[in-house]
Design goal:
- The complex is a heterodimer of chains A (267) and B (408).
- Helix content of chain A is 38%, strand content 23%.
- Chain A is α/β, with parallel strands linked by helices.
- The longest helix of chain A has 21 residues.
- Chain B is 72% helix and 2% strand.
- Chain B contains 16 helices and 2 strands.
- Chain B has a two-stranded antiparallel sheet with strand order 1-2.
- Chain B is globular and about 70 Å long.
- Chain B starts with a helix and ends in a 24-residue tail after the last helix.
- Classes of the chains: A alpha/beta (267), B mainly alpha (408).
Chain lengths: 267, 408
């Protein structure tokens, strides 16, 4: 593409130590507008820790995380609380599903709207016209998102009663409700059957291309990764060992040795 | 059948063994003789045998029921109980509320002052339960020191009234606000804690509050407490004790209505949803953009607000308070009301608060056994209905967007 590439997330030399263990070792990574970027690597490579650092759940030991919200000044977000990161426009899902089990599917998505609405305690008690309008908007927007991920039929079901694949899609809808410009998906296809994985594949591409949300995803399903990613980063033992397009990664000897060589189905 | 008998027999023998020193052996210290009451042993054994058999039978049936439910088609909903239906259908619910409200309004005219007094205290507990329901039931922050806020409200009225002569109506909001303020102050240091740790720290706060009341003679008048606290006035109308109690009763009715209204609105709002999300999963909640610190503090503050508010009314009703009124037992009872009623369920908490308060009062005839019954009821409830009397009603929302899924 001829246009200037707009960077959304820039991570420089990010390092995270847990005591003596270096879980993430000076990783540098970029996500640009309109991209679907995958982060792969064997189990325990530090991918989820990397996500946790970027989204503010952990405070990184060293390194810089820069966010470039559209039409706003870039911000260094090291040490920001997760809710501030989300409010700036970066949302995530979790590897081990973390839904609000005893709330309905719709309510789960409505929580995502929390940082985009402003009703305070007094407003909630008095329930004036602006509160009612916000509430209506929250509901409508949440339903739209449920439609998008194919869950609107389950809107009033408790989240815990959803089948596994649907729970993963609900996590995506909930993250989308925060109006992100960058979505971080942590193993969205884990535990899904081939049919569900294909649907997820479509869904992610649709979010990336139709909604113009950039996506950074961790995934083990190589077929999915190779299908949808524009670029891939590979981690092993906390270090970045390769980066490039799917074709480049496929033929990279280091990657094959570390990862795809041992049981990768699509090398 | 034989297995029931066998295990029940073991239970019976065990009970006989346990109660042997208490119920069978009786040492007469005056005469220096030992009396053997074998009949008691027989009764204990038989009762234990029968109860244990019934118990096992009931448990068996319960498990069978659970199994059948699983085997049923998964799509079919769990059948709502009669109580649940009453709550969910406005056609049934509205008249029910009307009847209850009418009965509540007429109550003081048909009963004696003693009864009215009991009900005033029961209603105070209802508000306490609803307040704690915000902190524990909705926000999931286990608070074992809730009584501290109740005490703060009561003492702020007692002090402001007896020292500065401030009127009840001025102190009522002050009590609530002071309660909320203390809630926020205590909330700050425990923002990072959750679960068991939080419970222990709040337990500590409750005890600290009581010790402060007991020992800070200059302000709280120590263990003697503060007396001659004014009852609520009504535009300067002179009232005798009976009229004042009736007045307080109506005041409490209004207060209960007000609390229900406010907690209901909060629960069903952006704030309430954030509380519930925090209860369900703190990490996911903060990752979805909810400010945890603010949400936690607001839950503490609002829970404490109600305690402070009714603390003022409590002080005005008893006209005398001392630290003994604010011990851990009160926190424990209010917490049991929330758990028994059903975490987060407003109707459930109201019912549980009334039952837990009125039951001991009306069981006074069986003075010796009432705490026993109380305990047994708790154990049975937790075993057979852990979700509480009234499980939280699932809220549904109407919407304009059509239900056509793009996917699947």
């Amino acid at each position: 593409m001829a246009e200037v590439v707009e960077k959304l997330l820039e991570v420089r030399e990010l390092t995270m130590d847990f005591g003596g263990l270096r879980a993430v070792d000076s990783i540098t990574l970029e996500v640009c507008a309109g991209e679907i970027v995958a982060l792969i690597g064997p189990n325990g490579a530090g991918k989820t820790t990397f996500f946790n650092c970027v989204t503010g759940i952990y405070k990184p030991t060293r390194g810089e995380i820069l966010m470039h919200p559209p039409q706003r000044k870039p911000q260094k977000i090291n040490g920001f609380k997760p809710n501030r990161v989300t409010a700036l426009g970066m949302a995530r899902t979790f590897q081990n599903i973390r839904l609000f089990q005893n709330m309905t599917v719709l309510e789960n998505v409505m929580i995502g709207r929390h940082c985009r609405t402003t009703t305070n305690i007094l407003g909630a008690i008095l329930r004036g016209s602006s509160t009612r309008r916000q509430e209506r908007e929250t509901i409508e927007k949440s339903y739209q998102l449920l439609n998008k991920v194919g869950l609107s039929a389950f809107a009033d079901e408790f989240a815990k009663n959803l089948p596994y694949g649907a729970q993963r899609r609900l996590e995506i809808a909930r993250a989308m409700a925060t109006d992100p410009f960058l979505l971080l998906l942590d193993e969205p296809a884990a535990g899904m059957n081939p049919q569900e994985t294909r649907e997820l594949d479509e869904l992610i591409v649709r979010i990336g291309h139709e909604d113009g949300i950039a996506i950074l995803l961790i995934e083990h399903d190589m077929k999915l990764v190779m299908n949808i990613s524009d670029r891939i980063y590979v981690m092993e033992y906390g270090k970045k060992i390769a980066q490039g397009t799917p074709q480049e990664i496929r033929s990279n000897p280091k990657v094959i040795e570390a990862y795809l060589g041992e049981g990768g189905d699509d090398a | 059948m034989l297995s029931y008998l066998k295990s029940s027999l073991i239970a019976a023998v065990w009970f006989v063994f346990l109660t042997f020193p208490l119920l069978v052996v009786k040492v007469n210290t005056l005469k220096g003789t030992v009396e053997w009451r074998w009949m008691n042993m027989l009764w204990v054994g038989l009762t234990a045998l029968v109860l244990s058999a019934i118990w096992r039978w009931a448990m068996e049936r319960r498990e069978q029921g659970a199994r059948e439910q699983v085997e049923d088609d998964e799509a079919t909903e769990v059948k709502p109980s009669l109580g649940q239906r009453l709550l969910e259908e406005p056609k049934l619910f509205r008249p029910l509320v009307g009847v209850v409200a009418l009965l509540a309004l007429l109550m003081p005219w048909v009963s004696e002052m003693y009864q009215v007094t009991i009900w005033v205290f029961a209603l105070i507990y209802v508000v306490l339960g609803l307040g704690l329901n915000i902190t524990v039931g909705l926000a999931g922050l286990l608070d074992l020191g809730y009584v501290a806020f109740f005490g703060v409200g009561a003492y702020s009225y007692a002090i402001l009234n007896t020292w500065y002569g401030l009127d009840f109506w001025v102190c009522l909001p002050i009590g609530g606000l002071v309660g909320a303020l203390v809630g926020v102050l205590l909330g700050f240091p425990i923002l990072r804690l959750r679960g068991d740790y939080l419970a222990i720290v709040t337990l500590g706060f409750g005890s600290i509050a009581k010790i402060v009341y007991e020992n800070w003679e200059g302000v709280f008048n120590g263990a003697q407490g503060i007396d001659k606290i004014a009852r609520p006035g009504f535009f300067g109308v002179e009232m005798d004790i009976s009229a004042a109690t009736t007045f307080t009763y109506y005041l409490m009715l209004v207060m209960v209505g007000f609390t229900i209204f406010v907690t209901n609105r909060l629960k069903d709002s952006r704030i309430g949803r954030a509380w519930m999300a925090m209860r369900e999963d703190e990490i996911a909640c903060v990752a979805m953009g909810v400010d945890l610190a603010r949400t936690k503090l607001s839950a503490y503050a609002l829970g404490a607000f109600w305690a402070g508010l009714v603390g003022v009314i409590f002080a005005s009703q008893t006209t005398y308070i001392n630290p003994a009124s604010f011990d851990f037992m009160l926190s424990a009872i209010v917490l049991s009301m929330v758990v028994l009623g059903g975490m987060g369920s407003i109707v459930g908490v109201v019912i549980a608060a009334l039952v837990l308060n009125l039951l001991p009062e009306y069981l006074r005839a069986f003075e010796d056994y009432r705490m026993l019954v109380f305990g047994a009821v708790m154990v049975l409830m937790m075993l057979f209905r852990p979700q509480g009397l009234v499980a939280n009603v699932k809220k549904t929302y109407s919407h304009k967007v059509g239900g056509e899924d793009v996917l699947g």
